[in-house]
Give the backbone structure.
Amino acid sequence: MPDVTHIDSLLTRHQLISDQVDRRELRIILSELDRRLQNDPAGVVVEFGCYIGTTSLFIRRLLDMHPSTHDFHVYDSFEGLPEKSDFDASPAGTQFVAGELDASRKEFVMQFKKAGLMTPKIHKGWFSELASSAIPSNIMFAYLDGDYYESIRDSLNLVTPHLSDEWTIVVDDYANEALPGAARAVNEWLENMRANLRIEASLAIIHSKTS
């Protein structure tokens, strides 16, 4: 099993600034990123759906622990949740409404300044409106936290042409009954991809098939 004591140290030393992710899931996300960083000295990291920056801060901290320089891009509307589609309907998810989880780009940047960390490259906009040119090439790790079917579908479609030869995608809320659209979007996407899927906590962890 890979040594993840440095990840445990990060999670012990730094606070979570929101309740949208817990330490168990953060540990999984960071462990997957760490494995990819050890195998790819030049790949790009992207995050779709960064909210106020809880996961982004920990990704940046882990990137800073590695000797190579990895570009880090984040994407968010900074206007909260969009409208649901029919695929997102769930009796367990009535608390999720349009405009919920609203955090401004300024608030996001301020969290990085307070932490003394380099701010990632920020792209503001709804995923459905982003141009392919806004997505970097050679993506070796993507964390997708779009909550809803269309947001996950759109972010998967955006990153797909830009993936490196070997890659990992982690999708939040795959096993969350309150947000069923995330799993539907992932499952549809996997129909046309050579990839391996496993589930930990609520996360879908997807690896490229290399043979």
Strands lie at 44-48, 72-76, 121-124, 139-144, 163-171, 195-200, 203-208. The chain has a mean pLDDT of 92. The longest strand covers residues 163-171.
